[in-house]
């Protein structure tokens, strides 16, 4: 049976169960899915997919979208945060999506699904709770629970880039704090560094036909994603403050000054920025 971490032991760097984080994740889900252009990877034929799993599903927007778009599929999402799962269940009920299911489960433990259970396993933006040691374990669990010929897609991000020095400083401090806990693959701790290694992780676990797709979200002033990016930064970086201070990578005064400056910079008419993320898809051998 899956083990549930008490709230203060949840390895996620933000407070997953806060209303602010749930609101941020719902908005981010829409932003990311739009940037990816489709719910499912291009190499997948939806007619071949029946059972779908979403790891670390958050408030569950992607699960509901897939369940709505493909009513013949059974879509399950799991997350460690029980209040988030309750919210996702309530939303699916309101939308009468009988084929959307949510459970509380820990991605860092052996997954509570039998071998060969799913045709497609999806995981997006898991870097906030994963580490160098847990990534290979999770990918191995994914190949176990996939049916032969099934697909795994992992979509991960790098810290956003832009013209705000203050925002850049806070993002790099976040990466530095994560690196201190062995959570990044970046050699000098300035980046998350997970995108470059996902392909190797999939191949090492036995996946074949590993393919990368890059996604770029432009969040420059006046662009469609500008306001959503501002909100994402405003909530996400504020929720990340305790993690940064606890890691000792920045003082409270330095954090406050950079946070206020970054908000002003991102709102300014000449702000330019992009958020780079990438999907890596691999297939479990059919034999
Ligand atoms: C950035 S959110 C991902 C949101 C979602 N995948 C999406 O793309 O919209 C990360 C999620 O991982 C969850 N999480 C944290 N630790 C976890 C764990 N050990 N097992 C499963 N989920 C976990 C958090 O509660 C949070 O909802």
Secondary-structure blueprint of this entry?
Elements: H1 19-36, E1 51-55, H2 61-69, E2 74-79, H3 82-94, E3 100-104, E4 118-124, H4 134-145, E5 146-157, E6 161-162, H5 165-180, H6 195-205, E7 208-218, H7 226-239, H8 241-247, H9 252-267, E8 273-283
Parallel strand pairs: 1-2, 1-4, 2-3, 4-5
Antiparallel strand pairs: 5-8, 6-8, 7-8
Bound molecules: S-adenosylmethionine (SAM).
Helix content: 40-55%
Would you identify the CATH H-level superfamily? Vaccinia Virus protein VP39
Radius of gyration: 19 Å
Mind telling me which CATH architecture this is? Answer: 3-Layer(aba) Sandwich
Tally of distinct domains: 1
CATH fold label: Rossmann fold
End-to-end C-alpha gap: 29 Å
Determine the number of helices (DSSP H or I, runs of at least 4 residues).
Answer: 9
Structural category is alpha/beta
Shape estimate = globular
CATH top-level class? Alpha Beta
SSE sequence, one letter per element: HEHEHEEHEEHHEHHHE
- Average per-residue pLDDT, rounded, comes to 94
Low-confidence stretches: 1-8
In total, the number of strands is 8
Main beta-sheet annotation: 8 strands, mixed
Q: Strand share of the residues?
A: 15-25%
The hetero compounds bound to this protein are:
S-adenosylmethionine
